[in-house]
Automatic annotation (TrEMBL):
Organism: Immersiella caudata
Lineage: Eukaryota, Fungi, Dikarya, Ascomycota, Pezizomycotina
Keyword Glycosyltransferase applies: no
Record-linked SUPFAM superfamilies: alpha/beta-Hydrolases (SSF53474)
Protein keywords: Signal
Biased composition (Polar residues): 21-41
Protein name: Cyclin-like f-box protein
Disordered, as annotated region: 20-45
Signal peptide: 1-18
Coiled-coil region: none
Keyword Membrane: no
Amino acid sequence: MLSIRSLLLFLSAAAVHGAPQQRNRNGNGRGTAQTPQQQASALPEGISRATDGSTILDTTATVNGVDLRFKVSAPANLFTTSTNVTGARARPGATSNAGLNVLLHGDGGQSFFDFPNQAVQGGLLGVVILAPSENLLWGQRAGPPSGLSRDDGAADSLAVRDLIREVLPQIVSFDPSNIFFTGVSGGALTLSGFFMPAHLAEFPGTGVLLMCGALAPQVDVVDAEGFIANSKIHFQSTKDELVSLQQSIPEAIVAFENIAAGVGLNAAQIGQLQTVDNTPNGGHCEFDELGFVSGIQLIADNFVNIMQGGDGVVQGIDAPTVLTSVVGNENLQFAVARRRGVEDSLLI
């Protein structure tokens, strides 16, 4: 069912990291009829250097019949010898003390190319996965963006689960009991709407960071007590969020709070595990009130302080802490909703 396609190691970091500047947020190149997925495929895979000096391996695996391209950022010695990474020492399937922070990008794939979680933080190796769809949309494998609709969310979530469980151990050495998740916009919709209810019980005791997007569960919740009672969930948004998300994020907050209450957690316990903030006065994902890419990077850089026991103070967000309990704060106060036309159907 699973097979690693090929680990073609091109030493072309500049080409890989130059990709975002050559694409707009829609993932459409100028003067070409290629789909965003085809444009991404034209960019070489290979090895490059992360911002913290660790090694990035960019490769592809076939999972459940679909090709999943992904990047892993780790110290060279943690890569398995089968990857041919210089300095690789780990045996395939061997474990280590390092955890993972697995990111699902937003619609169009910008955060896959930027790889905002690439630096090793809090003992977590960075992983980012490219959506297996023609328009680089998580949860929607065909057609143009359709907003909150994610008809392939269950299949994509299973593919992510299987990549982590069956492919990544052949690539890098990590602790399978220490796996966190990050979702950006459309990726956050797929994580919260599908992956979390169906699969998070297999990754208990860690957490999920949902940036600028969230859905209430769209599938049955599997073993709620197995994950909701000990998994951190943080919802990070902005005042001037997209209109559709101004509705879906509060709905998701209420849904996961109710799941926690349903397994017996009290308000104080829920507030420790589930937190929310939409203090920034920026637009969609503009957490620094300056831009989409820089805003996402700000939150990614503060992952430890938000998700791993920190105080939630984020320099650049004017709040004593972003770790406000969801209890009593479900009804987020957004700016006056404006008509946005196509922007509301493209959740980058």
